[in-house]
Amino acid sequence: LPTGPYGIFAGRDASRGLATFCLDKDALRDEYDDLSDLNAVQMESVREWEMQFKEKYDYVGRLLKPGEEPSEYTDEEDTKDHNKQD
Q1: Which of 17, 23, 40, 79 is the most exposed place for a label (fewest CB within 10 A)?
Q2: What's the predicted TM-score (pTM) here?
Q3: One Gene Ontology cellular component annotation (predicted)?
Q4: How far is CA 64 from the centre of its chain?
């Protein structure tokens, strides 16, 4: 929710902000971010945040890479597809 404790992240890719501990709007992306310029420590931080969020929140979707086509899945298929990407 935009009003919740992580509201600044709502509708954005928060990976960079979480990895760098920066909550400036410049660190939050409205489109896909490949994170290719993050170092190993920052990428490990992204993975740790992801694990924490997976335990607490339902998976509802992901940002698409440029040119990637959206797909529609049933709840069961969506969960299987998401788990394959991890």
Answers
A1: 40
A2: 0.64
A3: membrane
A4: 11
Q: How far is CA 8 from the centre of its chain?
A: 13
**10-68 confidence digits (pLDDT tens):** 778 888 888 998 877 777 888 888 999 999 999 999 999 999 988 988 877 777 888 88
State whether residue 29 is helix, strand or coil.
Answer: strand
Q: d(Cα 33, Cα 70) in Å, to the nearest integer?
A: 17
On whether the CB atoms of residues 16 and 4 are closer than 8 A, the answer is no
Distance of alpha carbon 71 from alpha carbon 80, whole angstroms: 13
